[in-house]
Each structure stands twice: as structure tokens, then as C-alpha cells.
Design a protein that fits this description.
- It is a single chain.
- Helices cover 35% and strands 23% of the residues.
- The model has no long low-confidence stretch (mean pLDDT 91).
- The strands form seven sheets. A six-stranded antiparallel beta barrel has the order 3-4-10-9-6-11. Strands 14-15-16-17 form a four-stranded antiparallel beta sheet, with no helix packed on it.
- Helix 3 packs antiparallel against helix 14, helix 4 packs across helix 13 and helix 7 packs across helix 10.
- By secondary structure, the protein is α+β, with helices and mostly antiparallel strands.
- The chain is globular, with a radius of gyration of 31 Å.
- The chain folds into five domains: 52 residues, 3-Layer(aba) Sandwich (Rossmann fold), CATH 3.40.50; 157 residues, Topoisomerase I, domain 2, CATH 1.10.460.10; 126 residues, Distorted Sandwich (Topoisomerase I, domain 3), CATH 2.70.20; 125 residues, Topoisomerase I, domain 4, CATH 1.10.290; 95 residues, no CATH class.
- One zinc ion (ZN) binds next to loops.
Length: 598
Amino acid sequence: AANSSRVLLAADPDREGEAISFHLGRVLSKNNPDIKRIEFNEITKAAVEEAVQHPREINMDLVNAQQARRILDRLVGYNISPILWKKIKRGLSAGRVQSVALKLICEREDEIEKFIPEEYWTVDVKLLASGKAVEASLHSIDGKKAELKTEEEVNKIITGIEKEKFTVASITKKERKRSPGAPYTTSRLQQDAANKLGFTSQKTMMVAQQLYEGIELGNDVVTGLITYMRTDSTRISPQAVDQLRSYIETTMGAKFLSPDVKVYKTSKSAQDAHEAIRPTDVVRHPEQIQKYLTKDQYRLYQMVWQKFVSCQMSDEVADHTAVDIHCKNLMFRATGRIVKFNGFTEVFNPEDKKKKETTLPDMEEGEELKFKSVHPEQHFTQPPPRFTDASMVKILEESGVGRPSTYAPTIQTLLKRFYCTRLQKALKPTDLGRLVNSIMIGHFPNLVNLDFTARMEEDLDRIANSDLSWVNMLAQFWGTFEGTLHSAIETIGEMKNVLDEPTDYVCEKCGRPMVKKIGRNGYFHACSGFPECRNAKAIPLGPCPKCETGHVVMRATKRGRPFYGCDRYPDCDFSTWDKPVSGEVCPKCGKILLEKSS
Ligand SMILES: [Zn+2]
Ligand SMILES: [Zn+2]
Ligand SMILES: [Zn+2]
């Protein structure tokens, strides 16, 4: 930059990018007085040329909002983490958004543990209308919603039902319309990618970054395929709307085009004048560029493209029919749904799976239906589900705690600290996570309070909008935080080793019992004679099937791939890629069982 007459700073179009530009500008200004900031939402020739035409000064409000966030995060992290190191163990951390997310995960686990499943029953009947099958579910008894708790209650109702008359009491037909949703924000993109593609939030952001930075499409030119992926705006530029609407009309026909231009409301916390995540050129159909993309890039691009195209399409129109069927004092209801016009669902399906269509045969009010069979079924109420990447991102956004740049790193940090683990897609807290959470709730209640954290995010928005001084905001925060911090240091008790569990294993070096401990990457065994005896090892997963005196433990290859081998290696060379089934042995020979893939 020293030899250039003019310097344009083009970091990412958000507060972080503004702060980077500011610091770069300060360094470069020694050699070059003409430094300007440019901003573009997509890395395409047209967008970059347009940006170069409109250079501007650094926006100090945005820089200050970003600085305030970093200082706030450090005040919290750098002050609380050492307390956790001292009282529990080294390597732990606390953080503004991280600790709120951990609290949500732990509270949900408490609810699940306290949950008592309740029995309930449903009753379905199969009937015939002029020879055609009709399925109906018990809806009400004596005009009140049917709530059956026990098998006895069910039997009272269904005994002799085959001899009763089933009469159509009413038929209600309603046309229902369903409108497309807004194009993607970061939060929605992560949620749909988790639900539809099985991506973690981190993976979604990594692949989106690749699409944003650009792919070479067989012409030696790298082209950005989507707009900037960290955004909470659903706005679309007027040019992109025009291009999209004419694309829909010419490729699919006028009936698939929404009659009015659909404008999507952006949440009140949305930052700056950003745009939604959309393809940079709607004409670039996913299939047309599939051969230049990896499988993950293709699937994510396809989802972004479909969501964007659908947002200016017409509504789906469906007929919903409800048929009420009387039998004694019981009312059964059969429902049908027939889609008359696909509209936007032609391109984008909002559900994970296709919504089922159910066709009902023609019936008339007063018509008598023939009984075929009755199907009572026992159910139990379910506890609330554990958070997944999708539902965690959703609640962080809805409560105003997370921001587009923080969703994925927050989940990643909790996993890295071993505060929670993944159980398939679900996030389950570890004992360590629950211990840290109990300390945060007990000693830093504000920091794990959703409203308090949301208000801090609002304050950062106000700084960005020039409505609040960042110095005042930080001074006010520190004013209350300092006191909390001091009393926490004095009152948090020593909790080293509280999570250790005794085991039946004996240390082969000194004969003392081994204890199960939580380490950086999960559980391990260590000698209870620490620090005189420093023996520590992976948790034995069962007796070694080869030498029968050693134990199978998890190890890793030089490249980090996990395998399972004998802890007497090199005396015993047993090893396998298959994971032992925890704690189970073969009932016939007493050897460990291995999970075989397929
Ligand atoms: Zn020992
Ligand atoms: Zn062995
Ligand atoms: Zn066996």
C-alpha cells in the first residue's frame, strides 16, 4: 500500500470489518494519507465496481460498537475464567453469550430429569363410505375434548362399538393459503441447514463462506455465489427483486409470481443496512453449476437459491376438509387436505418432509358409514427435547442474545470446553458444564440472565447508531460487575476434584484405587495417589479379547483417527477400528462386544 496513491479498505461489511478497516487505516496512514473504506455485499464484478465508485470515511460508531463488544467480552471472560481455574480446574472459561447458552442447555436437562411421563390413549376408527376407506380419530365425548388416561376408560368406550351407527354430522370445507417465508438470515440459514441437511452451525458458516468468497465456474474467474452470510436482515435490494420477479415470470409463468412485491419485515435488532443471504445471480440455477461445487457447497447453494426464489412466488392453495362423525355420545373427526395449487412450494418446501396429502371420499351430511375396525393406542407424554444446533440458534436469536457472528462459535466453545456433548444432534450438558453453570447462576446471575444480556446487545446497537457513548456503557457495566466479581472471589468455595468418581480399578504402579476425572477432552482415569503417583490413562472399555489380562482403551492414530487397542501395548498388539459397546460383554464367551458399522 506504500506505493499506491489511493488505499481502499474492503473488509467484511459489518462492525467487525469496520473495526479491522479502522486499525489497518491507522497503520497505513503513516505512508499514505488517502485512505477510504468501501463496502460490498457480494464479491461480484458489478458490486465491487459499484463500491469503488462510492468510497467513504470509516464509520466510528460501528468501530466503537465493535470495540465495546470486545472489551465487554474480555471483562467477563478474562475476569471469571481465572476464578474457575482456581476453584475447579484449569482450562475452563466463561463468556457472555456462552454462559447464557450453557444455562439454557442445563435448565432443559433439569426439566428432562424432572419430567414424569403420563399415559394417554387415542382411538382411531376405520369406516367405509360407499365402499371407500375413511379414517377418523376420536375428537370429543359428550361434546368435551376426549382425554383418555387409561385402558379401562378406552375399553368402556369401544366395547360394542362395532354394533353402533356412525353418522356424518357435518362437513366443513375451507380453502387455506400458505405464503412463502423471507429469504435467509444467518439464523434461519443455520436452522434450515441443520434440519434439512444435517449441518452443524459451524459447518453451515464454513460452507457459506466458501460460496461467498467465490468459486471458479470453469472460466478462470472466481465468482461470489451468495451475498454476505453474516446478516440479520431480510431486505433484498430493489434490483435483485426486479431480476427475481422477471426470472420467476419467464421460467415458471405468471401464475407462480406473487401478484404484489413481497416485502419482509426485519427484526428490530437487525444491524445496519444489510441484505438477506441470497444468490448473487438468480439465473445461476444450482444444477447448472453443480459440477463446479463440492456436494456440501451444492446442497447449501441450492437451499439458498430455492429459499430466495420462493420468496417472490405465489401462495400455496389447499382445501382443508373436516368431517365430523357421530357415534353414540362420541364424535370422530376425519380430515383431508388437498393442494389445489403448489405456488412457492413448487420450489421450496418449508417442512423437513413433504406434508402428507389426505384425500377423503365424497360424503354427505346424514350419511351412514359402515364400521370396519377400531384402533386404540397407548402413548406417553414426552419431555421437552434437548437443544440442537437449530433450536439453540433459534432461541438465542429470539431472545435477542445472539448475533449472526456469534451463533456458531458459541455452540463450538461449549463443545470444546466439554461443557456439553453431542448426543446425535442434541446438546447434552456434562457434569462439568452443570457445575460451571451452577457457579454462574449462583454468583453472576445477571450475566446468565437472558434479558440482561439482550439489553447489552441493544446497547451495542445504540452505540452503532450513535445513540449511546461506548465509554459510558462500559463504565456502567463495570460499575456493577466489579462488586459482583469481588464477592464471587471471596464466596465461591474450593471445588477441585468434586466431580471425581471412585472406580474399581487399581493403579498398576502403586496399588491405590483409580478415580474417574473430567479432562480437556472428556473422561479419563487417574491414580488417587496424585501427586505422589502421576499414573493417568484412558478409561478401560472392557477386557482385552486377545491377552485377557489387559484392557481395551481408546487411542488415536498419528493423524488423530480414533481406534481401540490393548493398554498392554506393545506386549499385546490387539487393535480394532470398531468401538466397544460400553460396559457390555458377550454373554457366551465374556469377551467385549464391538459396534460394527453396517
Ligand atoms: Zn498410582
Ligand atoms: Zn491385550
Ligand atoms: Zn462371544
